[in-house]
Amino acid sequence: MKHDEIFERLEPPHNGLARLRSRIDAGDDRWWVSVARVAPLAFVAAAIVLVIIVVTRRNDPIAEARHHTGTAEIALGIAPMPTETVAVDDDARTTTALTEVRTTNPNVAFYWVSSTSWKQ
Questions:
Q1: pLDDT 10s digits, 11-20
Q2: Cα dihedral 60, 61, 65, 67 sign
Q3: pTM, full prediction
Q4: 42: Cβ–Cβ under 8 A, 6 or more apart, which residues?
């Protein structure tokens, strides 16, 4: 099917094109009226969204860091030192790494131990 068979051809209203051209040439500024009506509503909507975001995100980074007991938080003094004791020989301190593995039981301390000097 051809384009003309599917869509009917519409003609502009009488004198419509001449009126459009005269408005463009005259620099009609009626669009400012629309902007002046919409701008306050857009400002209020943006303010409401900002308030909702601020109210729902009351996350305190310091309080959240206290819940994580990683080495960075401990080094910054935000999180307390762990109370568990792990013993590593003086000879193995330069080649051994320890990582705490969290379990579902808070009374259990489990550590992953790795060393560069171990051979298997």
A1: 878 888 888 8
A2: positive
A3: 0.29
A4: none
